[in-house]
Design brief:
It is a single chain. Helices cover 61% and strands 11% of the residues. The protein is mostly helical and 190 residues long. The protein folds into 2 domains: 59 residues, no CATH class; 123 residues, no CATH class.
């Protein structure tokens, strides 16, 4: 799988062309590839948990990490319902925007994609995101009953565990993706 992901990433970098119908997200050993209906990004040199470990107690940083976390949850739902690149993927993206995060997590739990422990981690850490999104200052945000500024290391540890487990789950699910099909699709546009 790793070799195929590298092959796809190199092909995209070489051609700078991806079909507008293509939607795909893949995680390699130290990078990820995101193709989204004609646009692409390849992030090389990424340590999966590094940006969680380096997270600061800043509103923008916390909101950014949760945007990525929600993206993973949405991608798992996409894979479960439609597969990696389906013509109705954009419709599901639109629908998921109106489904609250807790309901999306509950779907994954009900489908046995995640377990109770991960579900609880996601619920608890998401409360901090909500605090940053809706509070005047960090002095109003709590994590596990304590002010976040006094409990930030516990929050980061739990967030890193949630992130690590979601990445592991996604890597397992992406094994079902036929990457050759996507390579062929890009080669047609060369």
């Amino acid at each position: 799988m790793e070799d195929k992901i590298k092959q796809l990433a190199q092909l995209i970098l070489d051609t700078k062309i991806v079909p507008k119908s293509l939607r795909l997200f893949l995680i390699g050993e130290d990078y990820w590839v995101r193709i989204y209906y004609g646009a692409f990004s390849i992030r090389v040199g990424v340590r999966e948990y590094g940006f969680v470990r380096n997270l600061n107690l800043e509103r923008g940083a916390v909101l950014d990490i949760f945007a990525k976390l929600e993206f993973f949850v949405n991608e798992l739902i996409q894979l479960k319902l439609l597969g990696p690149s389906h013509k109705k993927g954009q419709i599901l993206d639109d629908i998921l925007q109106y489904v609250d995060f807790f309901s999306r997590v509950r779907f994954l739990k009900e489908w046995d994609i995640i377990d109770n422990h991960l579900s609880n981690l996601l619920y608890q850490t998401k409360q901090v995101r909500n605090g940053f999104a809706h509070s005047w200052s960090e002095d109003e945000i709590k994590y596990k009953g304590k002010l976040i500024k006094n409990n930030f290391s516990d929050f980061k540890q739990d967030l890193e565990e949630a992130w690590r487990r979601l990445v592991e789950i996604y890597k397992k699910e992406q094994e079902k993706i036929d990457i050759d099909k996507f390579i062929d699709s890009i080669l047609k546009y060369r």
